[in-house]
Amino acid sequence: MSLNHISLPEKPIHVLTLTPFYPVEGDDVSGCFVSEPLGWLERDGVSNTVFAVQPIYRGRGHANTSVPPAERISYLALPGGFGLPTSGAFLYARILPAVRKRNQVHRIDVIHAHAPLPCGHAAALLSRELGIPYLVSVHGLDALSTTQVKGYAGECCARISRMIYQSASGVICVSEHVRDEVVSGAGKACRTSVLYNGVDPEIFAPAPNGQSSDPVILTVGNLIPIKGHELLLRAFATLKQRYATLACEIIGDGLERARLATLASQLNISDRVRFLGRRSRQAVAEALRRCTIFALPSRYEGLGCVYLEAMSAGKPALGCRGQGIGEIIQHGVNGWLVAPDSVEELASGLATLLQNESLQKRIGSAGRRTVLKGLTLAHQAGRLSRIYRECLG
Amino acid sequence: MKPVRILVETLVDQELTNAQMTNGRDIIARLDPARFHVTTFVVGTPDPDISRRPNTRLIRLPNRYQTIKILREFIFGNHEILFYVKASPASRWYVKLKSTRKDGRVTIGTLESQSNLRAEPTITRENIRLWEQTVLRCDYLFSNSNAVKRSLESEYGITSEVVPTGVDTNFFTPDRHRVANARPLVLFVGSLRHFKGAHIVLNAAECFPQADFVLVGDGRMADELRARAQHLTNVRFDGALSRTAVRDKYRQSDIFLFPSRWEGSPKVIMEAAACGLPVIARKDYQPETVVDGETGYLVAGDDELFSRLEELLTCPARRWDMGQAARAHIAKFDWDRITRQWEEIFLHLAARTNGGGH
Q: Which pTM does this prediction carry?
């Protein structure tokens, strides 16, 4: 016999994860950053009970069989602006019996909530009721929720979020950038830590034998104004003369689709721009392997998992300065950074990369290395299990 | 001087390669036969080093129902010291009986991490309880590293002395006539389990295509890792190998990469160092077998691990210097020296018991 079981900090712990993001049937992309590390956490001795929650008007959604099982719960939520600030209380009322029961069967050591509203709020209330410490993850715009919700309701959101951060055992921010937002909103007293999302380096692996001969600029993201798709289309229009075979692929769907399609035809590039709609993870990985450059000139990203996926696939990833991804990409070394909202800089950045194949290769492989060194799912899960254990003391 | 009579609770079968068993064997084989009379157990063919040793009594155990025979030896055997007490039902009975009556014998338990409790899929609460009721109740406890000693103190509040695990530096030697590799060869030896970090070796292999990587060992992650390494042309899995074959691997390699997160005092580090390899290991368990910056590197995270590996890959001279320093440093852990420490401990404890208890 040995001392292994006492010399190792591997006491098994049980975590209750509350998340509004979790893959459903037919959509394995949204919330994969919650489901993917679970397998690795298990190996670090962290078992998880996942409650995937949704407001009642969204419907339940069917479980996705390719991810660890989660209990799907829909809670009552008011429509309109006051829906968000009140949803935490509704959610709490809805799940308390289930959590109590779960806690009796298998003691819960930590509650981990994704996004302060509604899950963080529900976790804070559960924590008060059951005496279990809780952590809250902040992914970006949800920091104070004032961007989504305006006016008095927005103030309520911000006030509740602050309260949640201050009483949490830890606030896990997806980047330093988000941490700054949390600290500026809720004060330095809250215990924050930064945990970058991880990538699966196997799904997002580089193509074994380079890419196709025709250059392709790829972008992946919901078609919403914040992602800056129109900047990309405008920059693309300036490049189209110089690169006769250059194409642009757009993966993702959203309200902007019609507007972007019109813009493309106005710019006379519709024949070279392909709107591929929503795609599965495998298809995204495949597209990343095929493309020449990945570009996403977002106006706001907490971190931007998709940049990491592009890096992992060995492709030069282009993002904007002053956002989460700027903490990982070193301009010209393992990726490319341009000023936000600048078509000229975006176009010149793309041009520089397009005309220099060896630069593409160098940046691509440096990006892949960056991921392998510290941004895989195993790294993320390892850090997360340490955060869980630290909050237990 | 009267010889000290020691009962060692281990099996000296030659085919058992479990680390704790081999440790017991390594110590017995080196104890001075004139001063130490040893009794120990065997099921099949005993190790030749042990059967050759004078003043050594081997008790043959049946394949099943061993407890009675072991217990009989514990109680009625004429021994002064019971060494290497295991978490076995026999020891539990003995420890129970011993607490009810006066018994002059001294029990010594050792705390090591090499026997890899974790490897067994059956680490149950009962296993841990049994361990607590036997090993932890011994009169004297010895840890094999300071980190193990500290964890014992913090978990159970029990103090222990440190006697490190040894390595056979006469067996594990560098190959003086080796031909330099055209490409640097990075070696990992360990079971393929998550906490050993073999997946990090694969990450490294992908980042450094200029080097070759060999993984020795088997385990439940083997299939997964092999599948991942399929497209990596610079990775080879050699499976579990015999002691001599592993030595050959050490001798052919240039760097020993050991990204394991949890260890007591891993033997593979000592073996690699004895074969003259620089070692990259983690700071987490504070191995005393690596001197950071001199015989290798102790790294805090993966980022540092990669940059240190790159440094060693690009600089053959540093590899050589560190390898030499590693070999020199590891001489402190040679089994001969470690066994001298045990001999002193046994003599000291025997003198105390003969002098009227402790």
A: 0.82
